[in-house]
Amino acid sequence: MTAPVSPQQAARLEELWKRIAGILASEDPLPSRIAEAALIATGAQDATVYLKERDAWVRSGPKLSGGVDPGEIPDPLPSVAFVREGDLWVPLATEGEIHGLLRLLGIPGEEALENGPLLGFLFGSLVGAHRLARLVRDAEFELKARLLELESLYDLGLSLGGQLDLSSLADEVLFRSISLTDAGRGTLVLLEESGTVLLERSVGTEILTAKDAPGWTLPAGGLINNAAASGDTAGAALSCEKALAVEISVAGRRLGVLAVADKESRDGRVLDFTPTDARLLSLFANQAAAAIETARLHKEALEKERIERELELAAAIQRQILPRDLPNVPGLAIAARNVPTRQVGGDYFDVFPLSGGRLAFLVADVSGKGVPAALLVSTVHAAVHLQIDEAPTIRDLVKRIDRHLQRYAVTRKFLTAFFGLLEPGTGVLRYVSAGHNPALLRRSGGDVEQLKATGVPMGMFPNATWTEETLSMAKGDLLCVYSDGITEALDASDEEFGLPRLSRLLDSSPPDEICRRVFDAVASFAADVPQYDDQTLLLIHRT
Amino acid sequence: MSETCKVSSERRGDVAILWTDGYINNQGGEEIAKEAYSRLEQGARALVLNLEKTRIVNSIGISILIEVLEKVMDRKGVLAFCGLTPTIDKTFRIMGLAQYAEIYPTQEDALRGVEAKTA
Asked: Could you tell me which CATH class the domain A7-136 is placed in?
């Protein structure tokens, strides 16, 4: 029969339980609380609590970061309490699962030894409950982390869809990749279509050398958890042991490489990347690829827009230079028209009266297109108007302009030109054709003569010379000067409009009428075939 | 080497402001925790974490911030964040940090907010 508990004993036990309850309810880490409560309950000299944290053992202390020496934990784990070398080892278990061990040193007596298994049950339940609570919390955290991954993919899609700046886009992709894979560092390399490095970003020490990116062979799935043993060039080139590297590509074309390394754990170890990490990084890479391609196309579109603006400017220059009205010269009927192609070319014509009733005219065709051609036309226009009164002859005028072009032309371009000076009263025509298409002179009787080039194109050779021809235009004669955009207009079968077709359209009709007819005929001949050269026609009829 | 996170702090009355500069990962989180616990030990009742120089936070960094938050709440204190990038802002909201800690756009807003709560 057991002796009744004395009031003193009851008071002492109550005090003891209060202390234990206070310790267990404190904010100290659970192993420390268990160890302290066990010391009070048993009167042992020292207590240590070992807890199994995922796949590692940790020892009780101010922080659960202390390592446990190999051999310190009994192997196999005891399912019941036992005494070894004077220490009491108590398994902390619930439902047959051992969560930890309580080790009591310096046990004062048998009573304490007998209480060991009871302590194991009590503290085991506590650890089990604590563990369960933590599992729930971890599961909740994991769930939120998965939600964050999904949200990030969604956000990244939205964000990248509206992001046309490659630099910001690269940051967005890299930061999210590092963050969601718990990587310690990351590198993103974007490549030009040619394979040269367009952009490189790293957080922490760079993982991969950017210049090697085009030639890397990456492992299937992207996981490199032992770089040294990897047979892939990427693995061999890595500056770390564990990494994850995926290709950013569109239609099999590599746009870049995205790599992360040093997956972190809470206890400071470097973990293997998981297939989930690889899948996530691949999804990021896919989204990045689409966004990078969009940004690249946007850049191209901007370039196209710039070129179009430049062409607009060139067209405006040309429009300013071409005569708005043709001069009204007694004894002559004049018609002229210039149809520029979509891309601004270098056709130029001018007709203007000079002193003594003379008429100066020219049709020129500058090599090339766009602003450079328009600027050259502008230069020639200015030179002609400045020099024509000073130059004693057309030939001198051509020589002076040629010299000017040789000296000052910014671009290495040349032009063909037909310069003419006509005296309306006498019909005397002086002309120089600098490599230009043969002008046509339709005599009143219907014969058509070709006025062939009298020298090479201007701006081409430093010491070029030209001859000046003189002829007489009788009343009823028609002079037709044109650019090769007319005679070289192509139809669907690549046939040229040609000189004979143009010649046949020249008759005794008023020049306006002939001009309209020529352009109608060329348009009808070319049908829907796009033309890439300006078309210019100048007709002078001596009436 | 990972990007190192630097943490600095300043006491303003009952409030301690902590500035982070860099990646809030394991190392960054530990730096924050160390600084935060030190300020709490010194008697700060509220912490304002200014993250305007942080562009990346990972899940380990977040779990440490949750531990700091729990510690502050155990002491009936207040924790507030400010200067978050839109991505980090959303991350904190999803991961539950915003449930118990206020997020403010600027440091001034955060100081006004925590002072009102601790008054």
From this structure: alpha beta
